[in-house]
Amino acid sequence: MPPDPATRASPWRDRRLPLGVATLAALAIAGLVVPLFYGIDPNAMPDPVGLAWRAPSAAHWLGTDALGRDVLARLLAGTRVSLGVALLASAVAFVVGTLWGLVAGWRGGIVDTVLMGIVDTLLAIPRVLLLLIILGFWEARSALVVGVILGLTDWMRTSRLVRADVRAARTAPWIVAARAIGASDARILRVHLLPVVLRQAAIAAALAAAHALMLEAGLAAIGLGIAVPQASWGTMLVTAVTEVSFYWWLFAAAAVPLFAASAACVAISDAARTLLDPRAR
Amino acid sequence: MRTFLLRRLARAVVVSGLAASATFALILAAPGDPMSAILDAGSIDEATREQWRAQWALDRSGPVRYVAWVSAVARGELGPSIAVGTPVSQAIAAALPYTALLMGTAILLSLVLGVVIAVVQARAAGRPRDRLLNTVMVAAVAAPEAGVAFALIGLVAVSWGVLPASGAHQIDAETWGWGWRVADLLTHLALPAATLTVAGTAVVARHQRAALLAVLPEDFVTLWRARGMPEGALWRRVLLRHAAAPVITLFGLAFPALVGGAVIVERIFAWPGMGTLVATGVARRDAPLVASCVALTALLVVLGSTLADLLHRTLDPRLRDADAD
Predict the structure, then answer these.
(1) Which residues on B lie below 8 Å from A267 (Cβ)?
(2) Using the beta-carbon criterion (under 8 Å), do A213 and B15 form an inter-chain contact?
(3) Can you give the C-alpha Rg of chain A in angstroms?
(4) pLDDT per residue over B78-99, tens digit each?
(5) Which of A182, A220, B208, B266 has its CA 20 to 30 A from that of A39?
(6) Does any domain span residue A43?
(7) Which residues in chain B have Cβ-Cβ distances shorter than 8 Å to A218?
(8) How confident is the model at residue A12 (pLDDT cuts 50, 70, 90)?
């Protein structure tokens, strides 16, 4: 018999949570603080032809890109943008999904049918297609637009989880008691139901951040990413490969932090799920 | 059983109708129309533009164009596609085999590899091999498909030059014998299928491992062991069968992709499937084309989950009596 992991899995011995948080914190510091000490402008093109595609050297620690821009400077700026986009997307998905699920689950009846019908309809359209159509409304997309739209296409699963939690909690004794003493709907939702659904919603939010990071790169790859010249992990990644050359330093500079951040979000979501449900080891 | 299937069918029609209508409205609301790319270049005068737009009924109001498309669907056609230049049904028929091949390969590989990895992990639960594979699977789930795709293109196609990175055929493949043409198709299939398989395998393995670990401590497993069932037979006949639920659910969720395709990966590898078709349709604001593709995919979303439910019932007799939706 293999050892039963449940007997060993104490949440405090779970290294995924601190590891994931530390990774994200390190990247955030790199994006926010290091640029203050690194004086090169990420969009500066001192010599677009002569300086193009230089491998890492003492002058340019991470080399240069197609237009001779310093990759390290772009990486630092891109880190801020990509993490910001992920945070924004995850926050939008979290807020919209939680409110939607709370209202649908609590009100029930026709409100529930209509709200969840909208969720079913949106889930029936592939997410990338939805992104393609909506992002087409903008000629050039800022990081803000990409972040918000990524969030607005990823709240539906959260709302389903939240609604299921609310449906299950509706008849719980403390809810019935709150109704009996005349608590208003708003108060029951805020004080009694929100804490119940927050844990599921937080797990979904961590996953939404990972998906946003990955999709930011995917959108950049199909020409619908954040508009040039703004640097982001995705927009840097997709310029590293041309028909004839593979610029490994540019690829690694963007791919490594992107991958680390996305893995950190998945690890955090996994760890949170284990805390919530010890059976989901 | 019949009411269950009928209810699901009705639901499929309603959901896909709503999804397609929402898509149609969004495309019409987006700036530009199918003729913008050709006509709005600047050198074409107003009268000519109006004449061409009138010829393709683009001067009509949104609701009129929507009704025209719905009535075409009701007649069993899907209307003409301005973006592709053929009827929508022909464009879909041309793209569908490529998407089915790509997604079918990726889904099959993901299921097989994922289950094998999960069994290896569950047999070594908690030991270094299990933990190492756990880390690898988290990494694979977190790997952005664009990153995987560009790494494969950069290394395998550009640096080593061993596999093609674009399209589904060499340009002169039509003149070759069929054996060479199949080989050519498979070499083009390799990189996009590998890209999709990375994340797919990890998703299957993670769910399958959890399900296996949930079944392992059950009394009936101990009983089978005590009765002397060989370990190999125990895994094949008892454990995998009892832990099949998540794999079936995942198959149901992946099912629509057999027709819908994978937009990002298909576009990166210029694979001539549904993902590429629908991306072209969106870029050219071809509402009938995109809405038809969405309707088809949405039908399969509901079909996939129904198929998964039926499979659950076949494997788990306890579910057969429940007729709930």
Answers:
(1) 138
(2) no
(3) 22
(4) 878 888 888 999 999 999 999 9
(5) A220
(6) no
(7) 144-146, 264
(8) low
C-alpha of A232 from chain center: 14
Predicted local confidence at residue B58, as pLDDT:
80
- CB contact (8 A) between residue B15 and residue A242: no
For residue B6, give the H/E element and its range: helix B2-29
Q: What residues does B269 pair with on adjacent strands?
A: none
Total count of residues recorded for chain B = 325
Q: What is the pTM of this model?
A: 0.89
Question: With the C-alpha atoms ordered B146, B152, B157, B159, is the resulting torsion angle positive or negative?
Answer: positive
Helices (H), chain A: 5-8, 16-32, 34-37, 71-107, 109-124, 127-135, 143-152, 156-169, 173-180, 185-187, 194-221, 233-237, 248-276
Which residue in A157, A119, A152, A120 sits closest to A133, CA to CA?
A: A152
Residues of chain B found within 8 Å of residue A53, distances taken between Cβ atoms: none
CATH code for the domain of A197: 1.10.3720.10
Nearest CA distance, B139 vs chain A (angstrom): 6
Residues A82-115 pLDDT 10s: 999 999 999 999 999 999 999 999 998 999 999 9
Counting the structural domains of chain A, the total is 1
